[in-house]
Every structure is written in C-alpha cells, then in structure tokens.
Amino acid sequence: MEAEKALERITPEEAGISSRQVKKCIEELMHETTQMHGFMAARHGKVFAECWWAPFNSEMVHSNHSFGKSYTATAIGIAVTEKKLSLDEKMVDIFKDEIEERKICVPELTKKITVRHVLSMTNGHAANPSIEGDWIANYFTAAIEYEPGTRFLYNTSGACMLAAVVKKKTGENVKDYLTPRLFEKIGINAERFVWLKWPNGIDAEPATFATTEDNLRLAILYMNNGRWNGEQIVSEEFIREALSVRIKTDEAPEQKDGRCGYGYQLWACSIPGVYRFDGGQGQYGIIWPEKELCVVVHEGGIAPYGPQETLDVLYEQLLLVADDENLPQDRAAYDELVAYEKSLKIEKDKPNRLHPEIDFSGTYSVISGNADPWIGMAPPGGFDLFAIYRDHSKQEEMTEFSFEFRPDQCRFRVNKDTMIKASMDGELILRETDNVFPQLKNYCATARFVKPYILEIRIHWVNSWAETKMRFEYQKGIMKITSMKLRLNEEDNWLVSRGEAIKVEER
C-alpha cells in the first residue's frame, strides 16, 4: 500500500538550489510575525528540504484551517471523475429534500448556484452565510446580491456545503470517501489524519489536522495533474480547472497574494503560474507545475501581515532562485543544512522567578463564569469556532480544578479527567493529555507566578498554533480565573473569558 512508501529524498543541489540557499530561506522564515512549526519542499516529487521546530515534529498532525477546503475540493473532483457528480448540478436540486423539509423559500438567484460556483466562491451572496446552527438552511436563505459565477466572496459556508454534497452524492463522509480513493493511494495515514465533525455528523470545515508531509503529498498530486504512480486519481480536466483563475479577486481584503485570483478552493499566487492551498495563519501548500516544485508550511503567522511575509520569503528565497538544472554537490554545505534543520526549536517560555504569597495548592470549585483551557480558535471579535467540534460526551465546562506543586512542575488538573503538567523552568516538554478533543492530545505547558499572588499556566496545544493562558489570582478567599485564548491577530489577539472559584474546603 502506498501509505507505507516513503517519498524519495534528494539534496537541494539535485533540485537546482544550493544547500546554503535553503538554509538562508529557513532562517528568514523565522521572521517576527510568525512562529514556524513545519516546512517541506520537493522538486519532481522528491523531498529536498524538511524541518520542524521542536516540540513540533514530522509525525504530529497540525491544524490546516482552510487548507482543508482543498481536501474537500479533491473529494468533489474524485466524485466527478467517478461520474457520481457533475459540477454543473444545481445546489437546489442536490438538496431538494432538505429544502422541502425545512420549508425554505429559496431566492430566485440561489436556484442558479451550481457546484462549480461553490468551488470558486462565486455563490453571489451579499454576505457570508453563518456556519452556526443549521448551516444548510442558512446557506439557502442567505440574501443573494450578484448573479452566481460573476463575483468572488470568500466564505467557509460553501466548503461546508461541498462536504454535504459529497455525503449526498456518495453516501459517505468526505474522509471516509477519500480514504481508499486518495489517502491510501498517495500515502496519507487515514487513521492519523483528523477530521472533526459537525453535530449533524458531517465532516466539518475548518476542522482538518494533517502532518506537513500529508499536505505535501496532496500538493504533489495536483502538481502531477491528478496522477500518482501512473494512476489518474483525479481527472486532468478538474485539476487544470482547479489550478487556474476561475474568478478575479481584485477587491478581496487580503494582502497582495489574496488579490491574484481564485480557482477551486485554492488561490493563485503573485508569481504567474503558481497556486496555493491556503489556511488561516499561514498553513500553505504552494504548487508550481511548470517547475515541478511544491512547498508546504505549518506555522502560526500573526494576521494580517505575518502569513504574507512568509509567502514573500518563500518566493524570494526559494521559488524564484531555483535553477532548472542540477547544481554541483556541496557536501559540507549539505551536512551543515541537515544539522541546522535538526537543531530547530521554538523559544521556551519565561521561567518562574517568584515565590507565591499564599499556598495555591488544593482543589477548587468554580462558582461563576465559564473560563476553560481547551483548544480555541476565533477570528477577531468572534466566538470560539472550535467549541462546536468538542466531544460533548466529555465535561466541557471547567467546574473543578486543582493544583499540586513540585520543585520543577505545577500539576493542573481539570474536572478530574485532564492533567496538565506545567514546567516551572519554561521548558516546552511534549506531553499528551485527555481533553474535549480526544484526537488532539499533544501539548506543552509552563507555569510561573507573574505576581506573588497571580499564577499563570501557559498551555501550547501543539496540534495547532492554539494557546491558552490561564491566570489565577487569589483575592480574599476567591480565586479569580482568566482564560485567554490566542487569536494570532495583531489588532485583537486574545479571546478572553472569566470565572471565579473557591477552595473546596472553604465552601
């Protein structure tokens, strides 16, 4: 099975770029407006550069955000290839039963929307339909301002509808449908690949978590016009249309690479002929078919400028300097590059320097508020998008917690089920813990007293860039709790919630 077959590795020189140049590229990727997590590059389907910044590693799945839209689009392409679906089918026809069941009065222009329009984000909506609640109903009742196919409006509701299209036309969820048709054929471990679900059981968006190499393999498939080891997995016609400008995006609010045009759930780049899978905060898969060059990145780029800066570095320091011919081998430079790649790690947290004025040890019962430590991802001013994807069979609300202190560690237990071991010296030690996302257990945590009466526990949920800062301030018998969840946005960086608790023995 292809899942057991490794991609071939070559030196950068065999890919037409010097090892010294690759090292320079990696160095410049670590700019001020991001935290790099994983990077891979391949030429002619062969890997010539790869590195992860510890504690991130090659086997760890990482949030894709809207990169996941391209996995859903690939499922649509395969369904078209298998003649289970036509891109010209109308959405109202596919969802006729759901529309009748909900007694929806569909706007006239909505009746014209085809699968092709949804793929290219040219639905015609005046504003993005909400993905809260009944998102299928929201899609078909949203106001339409433009003729479908004529105007671009970036949205996530369409990707959700495409996943529902796959379920309707094939009888399977996207991941289940892709497992034998894509994952097993191009070498993606389906058991490791995480695809969270909506409460209605449909595979959700944005909710995929993949390894960096998983994403590279998908990029290579597109670079090869949908072929893998001689097998046509997705039709050439679909890939050709996907890797083209289906609609101009001149008026998009994004940075420069957001205004170069859109294909099928992917973007055109500012280098002509280059396209990319693109997820929030810089989850990239860059494809240059003419040069047979693919680059993928997992990072935590600070919006609005960090992700574009990463793209600029990749263009200037890698793509645009790659030669079409092999370069002479430089063993010393290559060995230096490999050693450098293996040495990379993210900066550790601040160590504890203070002694508390009181003993924080013990068990506490929450008496008000809803401040929890779980993975959270929210746009500026918005709600936690990932709250809906939690395993609701588990205790979601933090109702009880406890602290146990050791010389080098604070043990923070939540609801008796989740143990967070936080290093007091700032070291980021990779660990696992059960939580409301059972498939996303990886974390690093540190603890320190920011004031003699305030304990801060910093949890890095390393299956993504997500981070939660939990601050506990003891005041007159009440433990004040503040939960701060990272947004990675320059203008509004934290989603904040608060609560209060008392020691159990003091109730």
TrEMBL record:
Molecular function, one GO term: hydrolase activity
User: Where is the Beta-lactamase-related domain positioned along the sequence?
Assistant: 25-297
Q: Which Pfam family is an annotated match for this chain, by its short name?
A: Beta-lactamase
Alphabetized InterPro entries for the sequence: Beta-lactam-related, Beta-lactam/transpept-like, Diverse_Enzym_Activities
Name the UniProt key words of this record, in alphabetical order. Hydrolase
Q: Report if keyword Hydrolase is assigned.
A: yes
Name by which UniProt lists this protein: Beta-lactamase
Q: Which organism is it from?
A: Roseburia inulinivorans
